[in-house]
Amino acid sequence: MTVREKALPLFLVPKFGGFCNIVSPLWGRNSQTHLLCRCLLIIILISAALMLGAEESLNSRTDSAHTGIIPDEPRELILFDYNGFIFGAYMRVGLHRNIYANMMEGVGWWNVENGYNGMRFMNEGNYSEWLLAYESPRDDPSWWGGAYLRIAFDIPEFTAGWSSISNLVYGVIIPEAFFRLGYSDYSWNFRIGRRYNNKVAVNMMDYYIANLDGNGFGMEGISIGAASLDINWLYSYNNGDPIGSINDKLADLFTYPGKNTLAFVIRGLPAGPGKFTFIIAPSFQSGGTVAISEDGNGVVDGTATYPYGGGGFLTAKYYLHGFFGLDGETEFYASGGFGSGANQLADTDLGNYGTSDFSVFTGFQGFVLVNETVSWRATLHYEHRSWETDKNFLSFGFRPLFRLAPIFGIQLEYDLEAAINTGKMGNRITLAPTFLPKNGDTTSSLQIMPYITYGYGDFQGGDGIAVSKGSKHKLTWGVFGNVGF
Predict the structure, then answer these.
(1) How many CA atoms lie within 13 A of 271 on its CB side?
(2) Contact 57/369 with Cβ under 8 angstroms?
(3) How high is the pLDDT of residue 190?
(4) Domain at 10-71+103-123+187-484, CATH homologous superfamily
(5) Domain residue spans in the chain?
């Protein structure tokens, strides 16, 4: 990657204490409309402040071949690219403590109650991902092939110990394992296996929508003018809870649902200064009756019937270099799903919603390079899920980075999250001095970040991160690191 993460001038950083003084007296009101209006007003004011800094247009110094917002984690370093073996990996690991100096276990304690997700900054677990692949040469007109394996490891928190792997609390995940076959004179290729792509990645949240991860086969990279087309058939299978250990006859009483998704992805369609990506994914759920084992011990506690039904989702993503006249990147997205595609995933999940349910996800994410020492990134995300108790969720994150030296900077993130229907809301601010030992490249090298996080609101961590029992004032601190290698 050629763009390094920088930050926003100090005079544009919101005064968090003043904001809390405004929000706190209004907390007890129950009006969902008033709460939504307050959230939108806060975001509009912050956005307006950001726009004031865009007085002149800067020529983009971003990589013109880049097709998405810079990830909020180190990229794996590809040691051998094409025509041979390919290897790359990254890892993140941290030590987190609460106000009582107790070690924090698990993740998501800063997510708002009844919310769907939360910002990831100092709010995620230990994890590592490895890419192993081989591609045959493509230099001469000939057929070429490739085999790809991506392995992910959930790493235990330090006090949990590696013994937790044995009870499946932690372990190995295979997000990608597939084969490709193509011809060197053409852009297209065939693939079969489990693919890990075709989605909208909201990077500050580590959150995917319009997610076509899954098993299947298809044809990718078909040229259609200036754009390209991928066609994939994906199949997911819900095998229920582990009841085979009881007896095979009992297992025969259940039929397990499957879901078929036919996905069309149009990439890089030029429109004005940017490019569109469209995802069209009709699907059909086969239905069935599955066993429910509430504690996962293999004993059937009941059954659940998954309905038959169709549906799908439609997604549009617009990417362009620059951010309202500033040097950087911007991505807008909107996605709607219904029926078997209401979760906007390719997996089987109709047990959690009905065939008449629907969802709408929309938002934007941006990265701005103000100058060689200052940059920032921001995300605004809204969701509506018709089947949830809290149907509407809003999330906003803003993080500047001030580079004080080639290998050192300071990051400051402000997050606002609201579960609108139930009135649950949270404000959070994190200060993280950031050491960048390898020439300050934040997208591929080591980062070490001691941090402190303060929040006010209804967070899932509850009294575990409260400054006193029952308090809405929350605090955690620790050190976090990640690296691409």
Answers:
(1) 11
(2) no
(3) 95
(4) Porin, LamB type (2.40.170.10)
(5) 10-71+103-123+187-484
